[in-house]
């Protein structure tokens, strides 16, 4: 046996060097679990100047806003919920995303009775665990259209234009849930791979934001909220990784963008699918095996961005729990010919819990990516034009404005993942992305975690956390088994 093989085999939980690339939810979950299991030499390398990744809570207006993950989705089987359920950190969000007004581009507000009927039909048409979708060949968009029009036909006659306008905006809303550019690229059958956790689906973190959950994971003390808790001394920020060399039996090497070399016995890579798509060919030496590359190609992620507008006082009348934008065909055609064309994919604005002076808006897809390239000033000007066009009252100039740029940031390159019809075509899935690269002795060398690697809870924080724990346990199992063989 070579000296390097012997050196590797002599490693224990105390001496094995584990590098985790990315300090988002998955990376933090992996690191905290490894430390809890007795590993000592755990290092998180993070490209940004902060931890959290797509959990990004920042001070804004009366307390904080979440630029990324905002809600804990569900209770049963949700590890985020289970971790904090005794601490009263979460509360049920007001039903703004159900009660919103539907406003047409001519300023007309749909009567509640019509809006409620169309909402019910549309929401009921989205299959969660509908078995008939299991055999459906087409896209989620086609399936939704089929169900929607079947049910609309059963109602007393409704203006067809209004029903179409509503369906259009509902498509955008649902595409934001999927993070797809549009629902025609989401696989109908693949949609069933996603498991909803039973219970309340929109639990918010009161005035603390989603970062509060990461503090719980890291065991941060209440009086030192910006501390790293048990991760103190284990995180290096501003450490963007340029290359991961995983060949050979000896130590693995990681090259940072500043040229620094870091060595490790195991690497857990948690970068987003967007980063993998753009960079995997340069990032990994040797190149990743074909099934892994197929998964990186075949799984998809899109862009969902948020707008936050802070006003001096609550901007909407009290009986307005938010609104969706329904475009009349002639107005849409005019818009498409103008430089404000990107506004077509801004689908609605809603209040934010514990933030009465804020309005939060959403934009999806290619138009979101275009919006990210515009100046903040231009984006705000566009949104104020939209308010003026749609709303039957004046919205004042906001005091402060911000928008997210999840795609433009090279450390994310998108928002979250979904299963597309192309994923099915390539017959790939999270299982291929998840599978670790082992050496000939079965030792995990390069492991993969992150929301995209979860078979059922992809696109969520609870999914990302489970994948971090999964990879920590993989190493724990390997070392426990080795010890028992000695
Ligand atoms: C707008 C938006 C809204 C969302 N809303 C919700 C929600 O309400 N509820 C919910 O459950 N989920 C939501 N999500 C999804 C959720 O945020 C993600 O699923 C989860 O945070 C992903 O965690 P992760 O650890 O897999 O990846 P990330 O958080 O992306 O972590 C990966 C880390 O790797 C770092 N990195 C990238 N490249 C490199 C490199 N070369 N070198 C070193 N470090 C690198 C990144 O900076 C990042 O910190 C939302 C996401 C977005 C964008």
UniProtKB/TrEMBL annotation:
Pfam family, one: Amino_oxidase
Domain Amine oxidase per the UniProt entry, residue ranges: 26-475
GO molecular function: polyamine oxidase activity
InterPro entries: Amino_oxidase (IPR002937), FAD/NAD-bd_sf (IPR036188), Flavin_monoamine_oxidase (IPR050281)
Identification of the protein by name: Blast:Peroxisomal N(1)-acetyl-spermine/spermidine oxidase
Organism this protein belongs to: Drosophila guanche (Fruit fly)
């Amino acid at each position: 046996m070579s000296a390097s093989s012997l050196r590797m085999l002599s490693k224990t939980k105390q001496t094995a060097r584990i590098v985790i690339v990315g300090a988002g939810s998955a990376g933090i979950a992996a690191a905290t679990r490894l430390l809890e299991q007795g590993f000592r030499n755990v290092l998180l390398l993070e490209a940004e100047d902060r931890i959290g990744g797509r959990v990004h809570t920042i001070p804004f207006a009366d307390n904080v806003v979440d630029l990324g993950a905002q809600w804990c989705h569900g209770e049963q089987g949700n590890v985020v919920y289970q971790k904090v359920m005794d601490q009263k950190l979460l509360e049920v969000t007001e039903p703004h995303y159900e009660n919103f007004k539907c406003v047409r581009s001519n300023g007309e507000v749909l009567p509640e009775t019509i809006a409620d009927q169309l909402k019910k039909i549309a929401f009921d048409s989205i299959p969660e665990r509908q078995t008939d979708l299991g055999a459906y060949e087409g896209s989620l968009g086609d399936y939704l259209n089929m169900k929607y029009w079947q049910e609309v036909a059963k109602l007393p006659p409704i203006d067809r234009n209004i029903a179409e306008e509503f369906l259009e905006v509902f498509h955008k809303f649902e595409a934001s849930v999927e993070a797809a550019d549009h629902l025609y690229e989401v696989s109908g059958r693949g949609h069933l791979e996603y498991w909803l956790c039973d219970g309340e689906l929109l639990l918010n973190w009161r005035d603390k934001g989603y970062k509060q959950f990461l503090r719980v994971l890291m065991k941060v003390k209440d009086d030192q909220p910006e501390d790293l808790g048990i991760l103190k001394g284990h995180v290096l920020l501003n450490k963007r990784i340029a290359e991961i060399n995983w060949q050979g039996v000896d130590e693995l090497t990681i090259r940072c963008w500043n040229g620094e070399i870091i060595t490790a016995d195991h690497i857990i890579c948690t970068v987003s699918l967007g980063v993998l798509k753009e960079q995997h060919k340069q990032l990994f030496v040797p190149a990743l095996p074909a099934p892994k590359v197929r998964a990186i190609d075949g799984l998809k992620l899109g862009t969902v961005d948020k707008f936050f507008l802070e006003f001096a006082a609550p901007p909407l009348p009290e009986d307005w729990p938010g609104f969706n934008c329904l475009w009349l065909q002639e107005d849409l055609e005019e818009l498409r010919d103008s430089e404000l064309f990107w506004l077509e994919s801004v689908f609605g604005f809603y209040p934010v819990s514990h933030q009465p002076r804020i309005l939060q808006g959403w934009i999806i897809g290619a138009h979101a990516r275009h919006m990210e390239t515009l100046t903040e000033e231009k984006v705000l000007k566009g949104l104020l034009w939209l308010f003026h066009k749609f709303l039957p009252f004046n919205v004042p100039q906001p005091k402060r404005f911000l928008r997210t740029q999840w795609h433009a940031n090279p450390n994310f390159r998108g928002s979250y993942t979904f299963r597309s019809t192309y994923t099915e075509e390539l017959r790939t899935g999270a299982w291929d992305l998840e599978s670790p690269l082992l050496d000939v002795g079965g030792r995990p060398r390069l492991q993969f975690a992150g929301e995209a690697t979860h078979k059922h809870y992809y696109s969520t924080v609870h999914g990302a956390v489970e994948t971090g724990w999964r990879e920590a346990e993989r190493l724990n199992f390997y070392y426990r088994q080795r010890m028992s063989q000695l």
